[in-house]
Amino acid sequence: MNIIINCMEIISLTTNDNVKIAADYYENQNDGIVIISPGWCMTKDSGAFKSIAQMFSEQFDVLSFDFRGHGKSGGWFTFTAKELLDLDAVVQFAETKNYKKIYLAGFSLGAGTSLIYASQNKNINSVIAVSAPADFGKIENQMWKKEAWGETFKKFELSRFLSVRPYPIPLKKIKPTDIIDKVECPVLFLAGEKDPTVHCWHTKELYDKALCKKEFKLFENGCHAEDLYLHFEDEFKQICFNWLNN
């Protein structure tokens, strides 16, 4: 059952492997829709992603969702191995609404998943990849560094943290660096100069290997994924809107 709250509708979708995916649908009668894919340990209901959804909803319709093993979605998180099925369920829902353009905005592992999805599907008009990893196996994730702990503490939400369910067995994953040359739609790559989780070389490598129309923006002293929005809100917003509207 779907629930409508003001201009936002809470919907439930089902993947091809029968996992329930929770999503927030902001419908404002726009021609284009932005699908927001959070990263590991983040959800659509976290403060940062509620704000990001509201930002994009100023000019676009929006779908923000929980990957499996997060928030209100079912299943277990597989660190990009099966999350393509989650994103596909959300994209299929958007397609039923007959939007002229479908955009993906992914953050961290959500950015990696968005790029992999775009490499396999030609129904995406543009991707914004924020702190995208080139290779999951090479993510530094230096959690002990004060830069990482400080940002994690600022955003800490107990209910979100307790909702995360990682799959205990490692599964084979597609490396974004191996497929980035297959992405045909335009891609905006955003990275933080001092990202302690996914070092900025990851995103720069993807940018360098991409053959599509592309842009790369490195935020000086910027951290990881949604932190770029939280710390540089006006600049982040302007860059994203300029990209999607051109």
**CATH architecture tag:** 3-Layer(aba) Sandwich
Number of strands: 9
Report the CATH topology name.
Answer: Rossmann fold
Number of domains: 1
SSE class: alpha/beta
The stretches of 5 or more residues where confidence is low (pLDDT under 50) are none
Description:
The protein is α/β, with parallel strands linked by helices. The chain has one domain (3-244): Alpha/Beta hydrolase fold, catalytic domain (Rossmann fold, 3-Layer(aba) Sandwich). Helix content is 34%, strand content 21%. A nine-stranded mixed sheet has the order 1-2-3-5-4-6-7-8-9, with helices on both faces. Helix 2 (83-96) packs across helix 3. The longest helix is centred in the middle third of the chain and has 14 residues, at 83-96. The model has no long low-confidence stretch (mean pLDDT 92).
What secondary-structure arrangement, pairings included, does this model have?
Layout: E1 3-5, E2 8-14, E3 20-26, E4 32-37, H1 47-56, E5 61-65, H2 83-96, E6 101-107, H3 109-120, E7 126-130, H4 146-154, H5 158-163, H6 176-179, E8 187-192, H7 200-209, E9 214-219, H8 226-231, H9 233-244
Parallel strand pairs: 4-5, 4-6, 6-7, 7-8, 8-9
Antiparallel strand pairs: 1-2, 2-3, 3-5
Helix pairs in contact: 2-3
Search tags:
9-stranded mixed sheet; 21% strand; 9 strands; 9 helices; Rossmann fold; alpha/beta; 246 residues; 34% helix
Give the gist of this structure:
The chain is an alpha/beta fold and 246 residues long. It is 34% helix and 21% strand.
